[in-house]
Amino acid sequence: MNLALFAQQQLPHGAQPDKSAAWLENNFLWLIVGVVVVLVAVFFLVVFFSFVRLWIQSLLTGARIGILDLVGMKLRNVDYAMIVRQKIALVQAGVKISTQDLESHYLTRGNVPKTAAAVIAAHKAKMELPWRDAAAIDLAGRDVLEAVRTSVNPKVIDCPDPSKGKSTLDGVCKNGIQLRARARVTVRTKLERLVGGATEETIIARVGEGIVKAIGSAEHHTDVLANPNLISQAVLKNSLDSQTAFEIV
Known about the structure:
Elements: H1 19-26, H2 28-61, H3 67-75, H4 80-92, H5 99-107, H6 112-124, H7 131-139, H8 144-152, E1 155-159, E2 169-172, E3 178-181, E4 183-189, H9 200-216, H10 221-226, H11 229-236, E5 246-248
Antiparallel strand pairs: 1-4, 2-3, 4-5
Helix pairs in contact: 2-4, 4-6, 6-7, 6-8, 9-11
């Protein structure tokens, strides 16, 4: 004879099974999925409202920077708000440029606002200054905005430089009389020669050398005093601005 024995858990008198615990056990996976979905939704809402103002600005101004582009710049630790402002300024000025060019210049530690201002100034002055050339000038350590301004409005250089402690250039004529001279040279920046071109200190040194040489070649000091333009003509014939970032006006 076979006997079958069954064991059944006896609940206390009047107790009912815990339905909430059973439901939780059966739907635990769905709860986890729901929590993850809510967290993702909250994240995207935070991201959306963080970038929506800048996105609307770029959309209305024609800058065409999408929210995904803003998120990408944020992840790459780029000052996305500054990039948006500078691209809006460039686009409004009529300069065609991509967001990647601005971002690339920022990541290479370039001064994006100053470079953008230089390109806009050059464009308004009807000068040819592509963004890549302006970025190269900026990365080379030159003040690209000041270069554009000097190219539009030439500046005057004192020769010799008073800040160096010398106020005159001394030369001796062939008759043994010493003359002391000062010169002011008007120069204009040549943007295409700015990278690799010599600075204004080279101009000052060359002009000073040319003046001393011109005085020394004079037969009589009265000739120089009567016509100082002789010195200027002699100096300018030597192409003192060659291989420099400037053009003598």
